[in-house]
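Need tokens for this chain, all 232 residues.
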Amino acid sequence: MKREILITSDGSTTIHLPEWNEQYHSKHGAIQEAYHVFMKAGFEKVLDTISQKSEITRTNMSILEIGFGTGLNAFITFLEADKKQVKLDYVGVEAYPILEDEFQKLNYVSELKAEKHQSKFDKMHQVCWDEKHQISSQFTIKKRKQFFEDIDDENQFDLIYFDAFGATNQPELWTENIFKKMYRALKANGVLVTYAAKGSVRRAMQAVGFTTERLQGPPGKREMLRATKVIL
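Here are the structure tokens for all 232 residues:
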């Protein structure tokens, strides 16, 4: 499928799929969306919960990303984990990785004013798949070249970034079957965040056991969803 580099409204790049008329990130701002949906509603929420329960100074967290894509969410998470001294294990699942000439055209490092970490962003894309790699002393990454329906993790993750393509083009990724896998993959009281807010998506989450919340969406979108695996 043809892919094109697109500049979004906040100046950051994304990849556009003309055939589907869909982008890897919001055309209203790729970086804005990542911070709003995945950092604010996901990472910061889970970090606060873990920190309150932890009796040690260092905080450990594990994240599963559904749709590694351009690596934007992984890179921003790395930057935030570095600032907050969080030791983080990151797993990104992607069935169709982007090419080197594509990620070289992405401007996230400059837009985030993170030039000193350019080598980290490059390494995230260049390391081989299906092996765990040390990006820094506090951040490891494992990229899995895998279809979402083949995920079979159990009780492994504190947080899931659910960043699959929309239900209009890939409805099979937003079903009870997929969210059952997400529920199993999370630890007790783990959290899943996504940009989506459709009623059918929310009902599919609730059907497998999630407790859901509608939150204010990122620029250009009225609402988003956060789901929690509540275990009393």
